Amino acid sequence: MDLTLSNIKQDPQVELFIRETDRKLNAMSYTDHGKRHAKITSDRAMMIARKSGFSEVEVEYAGIAGYCHDMGNFLDRNQHHYWASLLFHQVFNGQTEDYEGLTAIIQAIANHDKDEARLTNNVSAALILADKSDVHRDRVKEKAKDKIENDIHDRVNYSVTRNDLDLNETTKVVTLMIQLDDKVTPIMDFFDIFLSRMKYCRKAAEYLGFKFKLVINDFELL
To answer: Spelled out in words, what is the top-level CATH class assigned to the domain 5-220?
Structure first.
């Protein structure tokens, strides 16, 4: 079997792992880590890969890593990156002879978590940049306004009404453009929980040969 995103999406175990992850984290009142986040991370990782000059095979690897990176959460939140990489290997090791691709994908998945993020290859960098840049109102599962207000992660995500990631191949600049409703939460709250993620975005962009810019409400902040 070729390691393509289309083939990976057809695997019933992958779909079950993502569905169970969404169910578990929803019960724990976490932001979205299900199909929405998987698709956005996958799409962004492939866009980053293409604009960074990856081969078409590497573009597929980036998309696969983006789609599967969080699927270990249904086993354990704290070590979900390791579980996801092991699950991916377990499911596909007997289905493909593309061992280099398999290795690149599981390495990227295992190293994507913000507390232990390591830039080990191009696929890792594309995944980290795609994953850590996804902050948006649509990630908030909680619907009760008072509960959103009392949880800083929900509050900050809910405040973001627009999120665009752009890579300019000519200027070699990656720009994350965010529109934040400061009536929901002040911009400082964004940095309280997302500063470390933005630093990882910058490191990932630099690894790929780009400069990283963060623009919030039309002001360049990084």
So the answer is: mainly alpha
